[in-house]
Amino acid sequence: MNYVEDLRKLVGHMPLILLGSAVIIIDKNKNILLQKRKTTHYGVWGLPGGLMELGESTEDTARREVFEETGLTVGKLNLIDIFSGPEYFLKLDNGDEFYSVTTAYYTEEVSGNINMDETEGLELKFINIDKLPENMVRSHRKFIEVFREKFKR
């Protein structure tokens, strides 16, 4: 079990505030790693990331999620921003409701070989930041837009 599953047993579908992290991973060609998602937002492209477990920092969450979803280990994480508010409300197909508070990072320090977790993703691909797919998680597109504006990328 994980924290959110345990919490859902107690509160059912009522709205929660859930914390998470997402990471823009930049390769040597200045492309970013996207994941075609299998769970939430099936078939839609997004960034590696996910929800915080008890006792984790946002950096711990980012590192764990990247490793679980991609097999990659990230080095220095650089803060982009923290995203929250009514526009980050989600209602899942199963009826679960939550407001996400997401700490977004970027890194160019990455090691290891891509090894996708097939329970969470359909595909992993480095994509030119100027040629993002149309079918992207809306909030993740926002993280990328803020990254580009703040860091002139």
TrEMBL record:
<dbReference type="InterPro" id="IPR020476">
    <property type="entry name" value="Nudix_hydrolase"/>
</dbReference>
<keyword id="KW-0812">Transmembrane</keyword>
<keyword id="KW-1133">Transmembrane helix</keyword>
<dbReference type="InterPro" id="IPR015797">
    <property type="entry name" value="NUDIX_hydrolase-like_dom_sf"/>
</dbReference>
<keyword id="KW-0378">Hydrolase</keyword>
<protein>
    <submittedName>
        <fullName>ADP-ribose pyrophosphatase YjhB, NUDIX family</fullName>
    </submittedName>
</protein>
<keyword id="KW-0472">Membrane</keyword>
<feature type="domain" description="Nudix hydrolase">
    <location>
        <begin position="15"/>
        <end position="149"/>
    </location>
</feature>
<dbReference type="Pfam" id="PF00293">
    <property type="entry name" value="NUDIX"/>
</dbReference>
<dbReference type="GO" id="GO:0016787">
    <property type="term" value="F:hydrolase activity"/>
</dbReference>
<feature type="transmembrane region" description="Helical">
    <location>
        <begin position="12"/>
        <end position="29"/>
    </location>
</feature>
<dbReference type="InterPro" id="IPR020084">
    <property type="entry name" value="NUDIX_hydrolase_CS"/>
</dbReference>
<comment type="similarity">
    <text>Belongs to the Nudix hydrolase family.</text>
</comment>
<dbReference type="InterPro" id="IPR000086">
    <property type="entry name" value="NUDIX_hydrolase_dom"/>
</dbReference>
